[in-house]
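My main concern about presentation is that the manuscript never shows what a single data entry looks like. For the editor and my fellow referees, an illustration may be useful. For illustration, here is how one protein appears when written out as sequence plus structure tokens:

***
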Amino acid sequence: MKIIIGNNLLSKINQLFDFNRFSKVAILTDTNVAKHWLPVVKKSLKQQLLEIIIEHGEKEKNIETVKKMWEIMFENGLDRRSLLINLGGGVVSDLGGFAASTFMRGIGFLNIPTTLLAQVDASVGGKTGVDFLGIKNGIGVFKNPIRLVIDVETLKTLPKRELIAAFGEIIKHGVISGREYFDLVTSKKPEEFSQDELMKIIKQSVKIKSEIVKKDPKEKNLRKVLNFGHTIGHAIESLSWKTDKPLLHGEAIAIGMVVESHLACLCQPMNNLGGCIVARLVEKVVMNAGLPTKITNIKTEDIMKIISSDKKNTLGKINFSLPEKIGKISVNINVSEDLIVKAIKSITV
């Protein structure tokens, strides 16, 4: 998969890729992104596009939306030589990738992520899918886009909350990779980074994740380091959808990192993990970034119920990826339910 990162790329997308080799080209986007960036892409391509526009938000990331997409694609004569462009945030990348990967046993798709979170995370790594029965990404497949185009210009229309939320995943990359990148991404508040600095951060986060995925594409071992903060974070995110204050993905992952860092500290005698210093540091940098560290209106027992059915579990055991130090994550760590509950209660108010 070729990755292109730069400024003002959407206005010259036709120069970056040969769209003429496909029988038909469809584009998936949402109502928010369509207002800002769909006209730019259409003007650049100068060819007929099948437009599929969904409502904005995680609520659209379900099998019913995929079924509607399949119907539109069949009705408009898309075949196995067609292409789907996914223009939008993480929901569009995950949803579009899954729909394309399963339509007629798979057609090519191209990702153009327009949010910082999607640029550093969702559009990279080949994971596609939908939420199912309240489980985040419960159904999906591994499939890479044939091209990834990241235009930093799209961040100009990104709401401040979404920019900050992306740093949940960016800080995670820092914890995984080591001190140099960790210190860089925590050196300022997210909104204080210039566009050039954000470009550097995007490139480095994409590099970190891509190198891990290349070595372990199907998450057999090494790739599990990327799950730090996600076992509990995904559960919190899913449960927040039922409250009057739903969390963005990066916000939930930030809380998940705080909990799981605390868990690493709690299970130190059992697994010889040096997580206590990291736990204090992670909570500090998450708070400094303007990300949440506590949850309200979510019950501990509900979190436990969801993580007990987490797709990363094996033989009924809940597996965690926990930080030993900045730059070192231990994977496949089994922790007693008592300690998990204790860690979760440390962030409930």
User: Anything to note?
Assistant: The longest strand covers residues 135-142. Residues 22 and 81 are 6 Å apart (CA to CA). DSSP finds 14 helices and ten strands in the chain.
